[in-house]
Amino acid sequence: MQTILVTGGAGFIGSCYVQRHFEAEDAHIVTLDKLTYAGHQESLPEEVAGRHKFVRGDIGDQTLTSELLAQWKPTAIVNFAAESHVDRSIDGPAEFVNTNVVGTCSLLETALAYYKTLSSAEQQKFRFLHVSTDEVFGSLGETGKFLETTPYAPNSPYSASKAASDMFVRAYGHTYGLPVLITNCSNNYGPRQYPEKLIPLVLMNALEGKPLPIYGDGLNIRDWLFVEDHCAAIDAVLERGRLGETYNVGGDSERDNLTVVHTICDLVDELVGPEKPCRELITFVRDRPGHDRRYAIDATKLKTELGWKPTVTFEEGLRRTVLWYLENMEWVSAVSAGKYGRERIGLGV
Fold this sequence. Notes:
Blueprint: E1 2-7, H1 12-24, E2 27-33, E3 52-56, H2 62-72, E4 76-79, H3 86-91, H4 93-117, H5 120-125, E5 127-133, H6 157-176, E6 180-185, E7 187-189, H7 198-207, E8 212-215, E9 221-226, H8 227-240, E10 246-249, E11 254-256, H9 257-271, E12 282-285, H10 300-306, H11 314-327, H12 329-336
Parallel strand pairs: 1-2, 1-4, 2-3, 4-5, 5-6, 6-10, 7-9, 8-12
Antiparallel strand pairs: 9-11
Helix pairs in contact: 1-8, 2-4, 4-6, 7-9, 9-11
């Protein structure tokens, strides 16, 4: 059974990835996570010998990561560890540089040192997969989609930090021969997403009868990707991707923010039956500074080379997401207590 070191594995996408392998019993997973406000051990499966081990720590701690690599001898590192919220990056960009750039570079250093200790056969199997975002490409007009060859043009401190981390991963592959892979995904949604992001924030507010804030005119467009489809794509790239390559991962589900909120409202009305229609709670608020207008992913390379495609439609995925939150409100309470009151952040003033 292979061993995978999953960094940032207690976060939203990382915990889905860990759960996926834990349930399949096809790999021993070592989860490394600093447990910042958005990382929660409650999102992870229990520790089971030979299947899952959780370690609290920072990817920037080279002593710790070196010890983990020497002890567990993973065949792959999947790096989810990142500060990921655009609004928070507007208020405090330095932490995004520290984690996303310096932390990733530190992890690459220890990965390279570990890689050099492996036998030739072990080196042939080893992979370092870095999980990134479509936001590194900047903003699109009304037409077109991001390709793997689209020039980087990040517009927020968050996307700038992720762009820099991507470039370091690429450089370690080209300069030092580290077997690297990069994925750039569109907007993820699904169970266990921290309620600072649009879908869980709107859902939680709707359930409590609070205003549903929509930035600007609500017509900013994102390509929505169900988190389980994303994790399946990561595995496809890890197993069959060409070394040194980047693969875009998209959900083929472009929706503007207002449409997303309307859909959540309709599901809450149907499943919960509040006193008044949820759409009446919609409130348009001051836009995010530098808000990118549209993202859209062309995942043709991933589909044609590796045979992956999204399997969950936006409507099905959003229904599954809303039902999960309704059935797991104790998780929401546990991860939010004393950390985040769903207040507005990221105004840059």
